[in-house]
Amino acid sequence: MISVEAARAALFDLVTPLEVEEVPLRAARGRVLARAVKAARSQPPFAAPSMDGYALRRDEVEPDALFKVVGEAAAGHRFDGTVKPGQAVRIFTGAPLPEGADFVVIQEDVTRRGDLITLGHRIGEKDNIRPAGVDFRAGQEVSPPLRLRPADVALLAAMNIARVPVTRRPEVAILATGDELVQPGEPPGPDQVVASNSYGLAAMLEAAGALPRLLPIARDSEAALAQAFALARGADLVITIGGASVGDHDLVGRVAADLGMEQSFYRVAMRPGKPLMAGRLGGAAMIGLPGNPVSALVCGTVFVLPVVEKMLGLGAHAPALRQAPLGVDLPANGPRAHYMRAHREGGAIHPAPLQDSSLLTVLARADALLVRPPEAPAQAAGDLVDFIPL
After folding, report:
1. How far apart are CA 66 and CA 110, in angstroms?
2. Which of 172, 244, 252, 174 is nearest to 209 (CA)?
3. How far apart are CA 375 and CA 388, in angstroms?
4. Cα distance between residue 372 and residue 334, in whole Å
5. CB within 8 A of 187, min separation 6: which ones?
6. What pLDDT does residue 248 have?
């Protein structure tokens, strides 16, 4: 067995960032920016008022000063003249500031009668003007790698960027194996269970930015597995579920080897998830996950998501760890790293009482994986521990 860290490093060695493609701005949310993009214009492109009011000359601002209103400026409609001494222009938020004006008196500080305004007595020093380029300037860069959030998409739109260079989404073939499995919605036989791992992993991968492709369930025969691997051709990453252990019916490693898989490692010192296998098969990386539902999804969090992030150009990183105080006492850990399903409550983290790797209800209720290193000593309530948010 190898350590979790060694397994993750070996997995990173199996993949490289994928190529770059351009997508319309409307399709950019959630994608990973692959090349720097530059603003095509400044924002705002002109000085503009931050409040509705009257544009005039700062050196004429004093209580009871009288001005003649000579025009109006609104968003999308500038005042074409020049503001001269004793003149003011009615102006609305977002309109270009007229030439000659360098101060905006907000409308609440003005009394208007016809074309004449009189300034009040409570005008402060604030000019109520947004300078040109105060948000960003033409040529300013947005740098990669960056997973684009809605705010980032809005920024790119304001920069007048219509097409965005992003890393291609990795295509991931997901192959569940086992005579005991049926698809959701199918009536299971008396000795069968409903396949759940592949659907949970597909949801996890979609959220991470990959393109999962669910393959038909492969039965426990070498011919069926070979046919299933053929269906996975063209994928960037092949994930198998089940059949990676050492039992008489665990055929995935044997069939993959016959098809030319170059194995990187087999078995990891962790629980749940010890029977993990990885290598390269054809042009794809391959990860063989355990068949137990919790094991498969925990390994998805610990190993698969970091691999996908590297393929997307986000670098090779372990899942980010946070810390919280324990809510209960814990005994010493054994020789394998333990990823305990847990929930956070009242500022503390509480591991679930039941940690069996078949219990999906426990995982579904968890919002964290409490990480205990190999041979961790006994810990008391209140001790700080590491966890991975779910």
Report:
1. 10
2. 172
3. 19
4. 9
5. none
6. 47
